[in-house]
Write a structure and sequence with these properties.
globular, 6 helices, alpha+beta
Length: 183
């Protein structure tokens, strides 16, 4: 039992919440329950109906973080889909809506992200049925790659993911923040 004397419940690996509030125990590097840090790459398949099964570890995290409620939308620059836990989407959505839409680039971003945003709840088997509009945007076929990106996930066609990995890394000047990053 934590020092406060309150019983806490586990909501994700290393994340505990007290019954009286939703704040997580951040001792020992735990993260708040509303935050997720998805990482890794998962090979998954899509069936003929357009259903994907979320890998067990990711599914468990999504169930703990948002009861399996997610929002899937189109990426604005890459041929892939973005998958947000619903609370993370609800944080970013108002920021997208608040952008000045008199700018053509902003309108495109809003149309792609907000216009394609589709809420889902994982079924009992951890599956989601992706509509044709989202599948078409990302050119999804049977073999897919689910890529952790911190607070969100990306869903790629395996073929396009592999092609992206093989592309030239010359995307222009490296931002200062990347130059200072020590890996």
């Amino acid at each position: 039992m934590p020092e406060s004397g309150k019983q806490r419940r586990k909501v994700a690996k290393g994340v505990f919440c007290s019954p009286s509030d939703s704040q997580a125990d951040t001792s020992l590097g735990a993260r708040p329950a509303h935050m997720s840090y998805f990482q890794g790459s998962h090979s998954i398949n899509m069936d003929a109906k357009g259903r994907i099964a979320i890998p067990t570890k990711v599914r468990e995290d999504l169930l703990a973080l948002c009861q399996g409620n997610i929002v899937v939308t189109a990426h604005n620059e890459e041929p892939c889909l973005l998958i947000y836990p619903e609370p993370a989407w609800e944080e970013i959505r108002p920021q997208i809506e608040a952008l000045p839409n008199m700018n053509k680039a902003v309108r495109r971003l809003q149309r792609l992200l907000l216009g394609h945003a589709t809420p889902f709840e994982l079924d009992s088997a951890g599956r989601v049925l992706l509509p044709p509009t989202l599948r078409d945007h990302a050119k999804l076929e049977k073999k897919l790659r689910l890529i952790g990106q911190g607070k969100k996930l990306e869903l790629w066609s395996e073929e396009l993911w592999n092609a992206w990995l093989e592309e030239s890394e010359d995307d222009g000047d490296m931002p200062v923040e990347m130059q200072q990053l020590a890996l």
